[in-house]
Amino acid sequence: MKLRKLLFILLCMTIIILPSCGEPEPDHEQLLSEIGENNRIKNEKRKEFMESEIYQTASLYIDSTLEDCFPDHEYEFTLEPGTFYNTELPAYSDFSENEVTRKEFFSKAYLSIYVKPAEDDNTNMQAAAKKLVDKQISGRINSDRFNHDYYKLDAEKGTAELVLVPEV
Questions:
Q1: Taking a C-beta distance cutoff of 8 angstroms, is the pair 153, 129 a contact?
Q2: Beta-carbon neighbour count of residue 130 at 10 Å?
Q3: Are 155 and 138 in contact, with CB atoms under 8 Å apart?
Q4: How many CA atoms lie less than 13 Å away from 71 in the CB half-sphere?
Q5: Rounded Cα distance, 156 and 41, in Å
């Protein structure tokens, strides 16, 4: 009986170890170098986006729109480059005057908004989310700081859809 167990264990170990034999060891230095280079490029893209005139204009637009939609509330938002390439930014110079440009800008950028509820808050979040969509803003309004449930805003489709994230 002991011999069978020993043979079974040896057979299992052979099956586990055998596939890894003969595979070349990955070049960890090269992989780390590639990851570092990708991160550097992403950070440069983000920095250029954050320093651009369109970022400043869009941030002011978002701020004034949130002030209109959520008076007497504290809020914060993050605006990230999303799928923008820095060579595209000058094409959005008419952001302030052009609804189509705003829709396109927000469809490419990543916007996340958090509105802190007031003590006796009776704000209709769905109606407020729809107002943001009507102002050509796409992105998301989070129900809390932890990005649980949120409203997905899509100005191009004209929708403000509640997305329920299941608890773990």
A1: yes
A2: 17
A3: yes
A4: 1
A5: 29
* 168 residues of the chain, pLDDT tens digit each: 677 777 788 777 777 776 666 666 678 888 888 999 999 988 988 898 899 899 999 999 999 999 988 888 889 999 998 887 766 788 888 888 899 999 999 999 999 999 887 766 666 788 889 999 999 999 999 877 776 789 999 999 999 998 988 876
Q: How far is CA 71 from the centre of its chain?
A: 26
Q: What type of residue is 24?
A: P
Contact, 114 vs 144, CB < 8 A? yes
Give the 3-state secondary structure of residue 159: strand
Does the reported pTM lie above 0.90? no
Residues 6+ apart with CB under 8 A from 70: 115, 123, 128
What gap in Å lies between CA 30 and CA 36, rounded to an integer? 10
* Six-digit token string for 100: 């189509």
